[in-house]
Specification:
Blueprint (H helix, E strand, L loop, with lengths): L2 H12 L8 H11 L5 E4 L5 E5 L5 E7 L4 E7 L5 E6 L11 E6 L2 E7 L21 E3 L5 H5 L7 E4 L4 E2 L4 E4 L2 H18 L6 E7 L7 H10 L3 E9 L21 E4 L5 H14 L4 E4 L8 H4 L8 E8 L7 E4 H16 L12
Amino acid sequence: MNERQREFLDDLLATATPSGFETAGQRVWVEYVETFADAVHTDAYGNAVAVVEGDGPEVLLGGHGDEIGLMVRDITDDGFLKLTRVGGADRTVTRGQHVTVHGADGPVDGVIGQVAIHLRDTGEEGQTDIAEQYVDIGADDETAARELVEVGDPITFDTRVHDLQGSLVSARGMDNRVGTWAAAEALRRAAEVDPDATVYAVSTVQEEVGFQGAKMVGFDLDPDVAVAADVTHATDTPESPGSKGSGIELGAGPVVARGSTNHPVVVDAVREVAAAEGIDVQLQSAGSATGTDADAFFTTKGGIPSLNVGVPNRYMHTPVEVVDLTDLDAVADLLAAFAARADAFAPYRVDI
């Protein structure tokens, strides 16, 4: 990953994009892909599509641009902000955090309150539901608070990108700015070899609330094959539940999912490309669903052969998600190589 590619990743991670409020992040993505795509367009809800034109099969490489977050549900007489979730926000990591409320007139700093340990009664260590938590922006009363924010304003954790040891990086929203980064970079790398396929890179909206953007884009483009790049759980930490361990490790390469959504011809094709390119991959079982945009792509129209390729990620849906940049770079390389050879595996159909 060179300096410009890392700058693009950092820009994506620094930009707040809670589901339904992705515009600023989509703008960052579009400005990057415009430098090498043949064309770029967005739709009514803000899904962003970049294309490199070819004469072969149509290949979609996608990631979702939204992140989980919180939202102002109500404002109390005392000027505190009551909360509701945006997507799968985790109540166990919200309290005692700095946050940013994204108001119409600009960002407003706040904190999610937590009663000091000295004042809590013994036995009151249970987790409070997000609906019972609140943000303190320092307002004197409701009137003062309403001059700054209003009901429905999105809220994100106030964090920055941290480089850990080696090639590990931590930030809020790795899920799934790394997927949109990989889709964009794969398109750029594929374009360098002038692929026969028409290749779309996509940054979708509202994945965290039901794959909504992927439903729109899949219907609109109707490609021959789709690969969704998203994070997946790395279970190489001490607290990972043994019953849910997957053997997925940071630094061991992209994760190719098998089963359910994942079309077997596409699975085999991507694994063959990985072997030819010398890219190590990890396998993951997806017996019922992938929990990614691939679950929307594959049932669109008459069925789009689809696959989920994962970036191993520790601590998903927390403010301290961790990925290995070598895995991320390898995902981009793998998607680009697959797009460049997509015509060799068409048509993407099972033999009966």
